[in-house]
């Protein structure tokens, strides 16, 4: 919405405020002003000139020599190239020394041998945009429509000193889509009166009902509760006066003629769309409002043929559509230069009906925008009277007695109850009754009060106010948001941070993504056949599947108990698109339980799963390729466990699990409890899925989170100042003895000097007795307080070996 500062001054006293100050106050009250456009683009020295003579330039066919009276003692000669320049015109003239937009300075010059003392200007040369320039002046100079004293200040006469505020309105503030609506807003902010417009009309003796009738069909009464037709005869179509043209151009509207310009002027002034029909081209004496027929057509003012449906509302002459209600008029009955009788439409159309037609037909007009957002029902006939008065003044028409109207429109103000306690409670203020009542008066809201509060009568122009909270918002706006006290909530504050569960999940995600595993998100619903491929990692008394009561399909009929099948689907999807190296993980929920009914919800467990296939590492320069295998996946899993701080509590043993390779799968234990598995997918499963060499893991993330919450927090240990000493030892033990058992026994027999134990070799074969194997470990010793001597390390090392022989029957390997 573009709001002219000079136009706004006619309705509310803002002489003591600049356009910038008005914009600031509007913005602070909630009506945002995006930008202020200055109509004067640097123009100076432009006056009104009267062309006394206009002759063709002797040496140029497209130039004219004009003698122009510019209010000085002597006339001046100006060479003009406009094709519409003529003798007798009153035009804007930039004198010698004048400045036009772009700092273009006018100088005395010679054109084809003739001296030119100035320039006769077009609207574009004065800074007006081409889209608002009247079509007859688009390619030529501007001609004033009336006689003006030569030498008068054209800048003053054309209001180039005006400033235009561009409002960025929220959808609920349809009242500010008019000059009067903005005036009411400014009056409320400043506590001043609105200067109401004289809408009285001098009417002729004849009755409009003798010329036209108005009917609304029964199925269209909800969409059109009011339709008024005003008859105006003996009009003379001509250009509008300059004041009307400049107001329209400032508002972004192109002037057309005095009748059409008046309807556009009132549209902007009242926010009420109007339409003027040429009554002699209307086609009958009947106005009939009805729903359009399916496939019915109309040629609109833009020359396009529109095909309508039964959802659209049309204005007809009893037979043919002459206008699309609330959107656009028809081309056959538009006002033209020979129009003498006007049928002026002022109606109230239902917002959804107009919105539907505008959307379906792709027409977005100033009228449709206002009807869609809601016009003031009380202002409809008033807008018609205002327009009729202006047409009578500017076009010399006679307004007949009337209007002829169909009227079932409710224009009663809406009552809303509000209390002082509710206002203060919502705003956190301590307002008194006098302050609140003063705000109601400034808003021009009628009210009556009692001991319980007020009943406020909301005027029809404010259709956005519907509930108690809306009134509270109005009080807040007018009281001033900056005056509302600022208080902090009276609650205890806590330091922000991640929960244990969040920390564990974030650590796992960061680690997996750092080593090159991408996150996948898959569907929680599956089929029993697919879900039965692998073991579930969920724990509970009942590990049955939860069925969906009303599944979309058999493929989505149950809640999953394992994540791996869906990750295999993702691998297959990538492999089918020639992406052979795939590494994916997913943190998601699995569900167990017999029923998904409201009385017995399934148990939800957090699961963490990953799948890997193809090459894990490839170095083309060194021709080195590392395919994914069991130890790659186990190493990734162990690294993730280490990030969670659970390395000492997680162990692994060979195991058998459904859907996994029996010889290449390990069971994962947390404090001795089975929480998942790592290994290769069974070759038969790989074949069924069309895959090769896929490795996977899945574990119960909920149990890992619980364990991490009970574990000791990770503590920083300074980098050692003293060197470590390493000793390697190869031990022969029974083949059933695991490396983990041996490693735990080494730690049990050591003192605080032993810092690390790592397995680096396993041997079974020649030079070993049957049923025996050799495990080689590297032991690292360090004292944080001093440098160890060989004797101290030797004593510690021998003590450990002796203890291993006693505990596990381990002996040193000598061969």
UniProtKB/TrEMBL annotation:
Assembly and oligomerization: Tetramer of two alpha and two beta subunits.
Gene Ontology MF terms in the entry: ATP binding; catalytic activity, acting on a protein; magnesium ion binding; phenylalanine-tRNA ligase activity; transferase activity; tRNA binding
Name this protein carries in UniProt: Phenylalanine--tRNA ligase beta subunit
NCBIfam families: pheT_bact, YtpR
Native organism: Texcoconibacillus texcoconensis
Domain of life: Bacteria
Gene: pheT
Cofactor binding note from Swiss-Prot or TrEMBL: Binds 2 magnesium ions per tetramer.
Domain B5: from-to ranges: 411-486
């Amino acid at each position: 919405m573009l709001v002219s500062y000079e136009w706004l001054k006619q309705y509310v006293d803002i002489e003591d405020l600049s356009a910038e100050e008005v914009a600031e106050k509007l913005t602070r009250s909630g009506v945002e002003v995006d930008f202020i456009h200055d109509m004067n683009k640097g123009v100076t020295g432009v006056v009104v000139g009267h062309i006394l003579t206009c002759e063709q330039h002797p040496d140029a066919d497209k130039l004219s020599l004009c003698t122009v009276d510019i209010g000085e003692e002597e006339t001046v000669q100006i060479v003009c190239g406009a094709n519409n320049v003529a003798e007798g015109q009153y035009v804007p003239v930039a004198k010698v020394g004048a400045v036009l937009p772009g700092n273009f300075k006018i100088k005395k010059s010679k054109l084809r041998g003739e001296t030119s003392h100035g320039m006769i200007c077009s609207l574009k040369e004065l800074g007006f945009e081409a889209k608002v320039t009247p079509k007859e002046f688009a390619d030529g100079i501007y001609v004033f429509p009336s006689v003006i004293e030569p030498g008068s200040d054209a800048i003053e006469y054309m209001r180039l000193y005006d400033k235009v505020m561009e409002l960025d309105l929220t959808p609920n503030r349809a009242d500010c889509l008019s000059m009067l609506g903005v005036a009411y807003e400014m009056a409320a902010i400043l506590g001043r009166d609105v200067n109401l417009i004289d809408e009285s009309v001098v009417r002729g003796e004849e009755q409009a009902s003798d010329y036209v009738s108005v009917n609304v069909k029964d199925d269209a009464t909800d969409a059109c509760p009011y339709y008024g037709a005003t008859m105006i005869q003996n009009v003379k179509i001509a250009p509008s006066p300059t004041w009307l043209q400049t107001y329209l151009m400032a508002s972004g509207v192109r002037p057309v003629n005095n009748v059409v310009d008046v309807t556009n002027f009132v549209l902007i002034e009242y926010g009420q769309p109007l339409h003027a029909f040429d009554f002699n081209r209307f086609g009958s004496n009947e106005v009939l409002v009805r729903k359009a027929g399916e496939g019915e057509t109309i040629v609109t003012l833009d020359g396009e043929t529109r095909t309508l449906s039964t959802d659209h509302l049309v204005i007809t002459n009893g037979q043919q559509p002459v206008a699309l209600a609330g959107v656009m008029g028809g081309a056959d009955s538009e006002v033209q230069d020979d129009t003498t009788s006007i049928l002026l439409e002022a109606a109230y159309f239902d917002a959804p009906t107009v919105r539907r037609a505008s959307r379906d037909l792709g027409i977005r007009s100033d009228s449709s925008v206002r009807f869609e957002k809601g016009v003031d029902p009380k202002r409809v006939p008033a807008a018609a009277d205002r327009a009729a008065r202006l047409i009578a003044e500017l076009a010399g028409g006679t307004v007949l007695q009337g209007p002829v109207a169909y009227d079932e429109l409710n224009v009663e103000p809406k009552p809303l109850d509000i209390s002082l306690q509710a206002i203060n409670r919502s705003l956190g203020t301590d307002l008194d009754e006098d302050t609140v009542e003063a705000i109601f008066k400034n808003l021009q809201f009628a009210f009556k009060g009692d001991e319980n509060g007020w009943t406020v009568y909301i005027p029809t122009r404010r259709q956005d106010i519907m509930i108690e909270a809306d009134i509270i918002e109005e009080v807040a706006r007018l009281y001033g948001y900056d005056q509302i006290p600022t208080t902090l909530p009276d609650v205890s504050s806590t330091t922000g941070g991640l929960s244990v569960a969040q920390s564990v999940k974030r650590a796992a995600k960061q680690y997996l993504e750092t080593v090159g595993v991408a996150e996948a998100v898959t569907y929680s619903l599956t089929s029993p056949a697919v879900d039965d491929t692998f073991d579930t990692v969920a724990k509970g008394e009942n590990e049955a599947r939860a069925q969906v009561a009303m599944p979309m399909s058999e493929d989505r009929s149950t809640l999953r108990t394992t994540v791996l099948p869906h990750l295999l689907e993702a691998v297959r999807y990538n492999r089918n698109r020639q992406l052979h190296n795939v590494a994916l993980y997913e943190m998601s929920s699995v569900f167990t339980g017999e029923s998904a009914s409201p009385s017995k919800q399934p148990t939800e467990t957090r699961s963490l799963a990953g799948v890997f296939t193809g090459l894990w590492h490839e170095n083309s320069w060194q021709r080195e390729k590392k395919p994914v295998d069991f130890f790659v996946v186990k190493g990734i899993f162990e690294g993730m466990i280490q990030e969670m701080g659970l390395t000492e509590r997680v162990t692994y043993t060979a195991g058998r699990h459904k859907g996994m390779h029996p010889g290449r799968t390990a069971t994962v234990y947390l404090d001795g409890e089975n929480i998942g598995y790592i290994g290769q997918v069974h070759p038969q499963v790989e074949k069924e899925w069309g895959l090769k060499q896929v490795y996977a893991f899945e574990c119960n993330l909920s149990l890992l989170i619980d364990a991490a919450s009970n574990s000791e927090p990770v503590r920083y240990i300074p980098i050692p100042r003293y060197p470590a000493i390493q000793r390697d030892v190869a031990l022969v033990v029974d083949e059933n003895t695991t490396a983990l058992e041996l490693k735990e026994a080494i730690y049990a027999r050591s003192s605080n000097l032993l810092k690390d134990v790592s397995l680096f070799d396993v041997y079974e074969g020649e030079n070993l007795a049957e049923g025996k194997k050799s495990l080689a470990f590297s032991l690292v010793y360090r004292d944080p307080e001093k440098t160890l001597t060989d004797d101290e390390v030797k004593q510690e090392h021998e003590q450990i070996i002796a203890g291993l022989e006693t505990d596990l029957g381990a002996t040193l390997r000598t061969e």
